[in-house]
C-alpha cells in the first residue's frame, strides 16, 4: 500500500513538474490549457483506480465461474457421449474452481474411464472423482 502511495506521489510530482514546464513555454499557449484539464483527470484516475479494481475482480470472478460452468457442461457431455458410460447417469459439477464427478457405475474400469475423459476434456482443471462403483 505504501509503495502505491509513493508511486502515486511520484506521478503527482511528475505531473506538477510537467505542467509547470508547459506553463513556462510562451510559444505553446494553447498547451497551457491542456495540462490544466489533464491534471484533474490524473487525480481522478488515481482516485478511481482502487474503486475500478474491485468491479474488475468481481467481473473476473464471474467470468471464471461461467467458464468453469461451461467446462463442467462439456465434461458431462463428453461422459454422456461415451458408449461405455452412456448407460450411467454421470454428473460433472463445478465446485470451488474444480470439477466433481458423481454417479454410479458397475466397475472400477468405468470409473477410471470417466476420470480419464474428464481430464482430457478439462486438462487444466482439478478433477475429483466421487463416482461410486456398485
Task: Give short descriptive properties of this protein.
single chain; alpha/beta; two-stranded parallel ribbon; globular
What's the topology here?
Elements: H1 2-24, H2 29-81, E1 91-95, E2 98-102, E3 104-105, H3 108-121, E4 126-129, E5 132-133
Parallel strand pairs: 2-4, 3-5
Antiparallel strand pairs: 1-2
Write a brief caption for the model.
The protein is an alpha/beta fold and 134 residues long. Helices cover 67% and strands 13% of the residues. The chain contains 3 helices and 5 strands, in the order ααβββαββ.
Report the total helices.
3
| Mass-distribution shape | globular
Relative strand content: 5-15%
- Overall average residue pLDDT: 73
Number of strands: 5
Radius of gyration equals 28 Å
Q: What's the story with the biggest beta sheet? A: 3 strands, mixed
Summing up helix and strand content along with how strands pair, one would put the structural category as alpha/beta
Given as residue ranges, the uncertain stretches (5+ residues, pLDDT < 50) are 28-58
Q: What share of residues is helical?
A: 55-70%
Oligomeric form: single chain
Compute the separation of the termini in Å: 56 Å
What is the element string, with H for helices and E for strands? HHEEEHEE
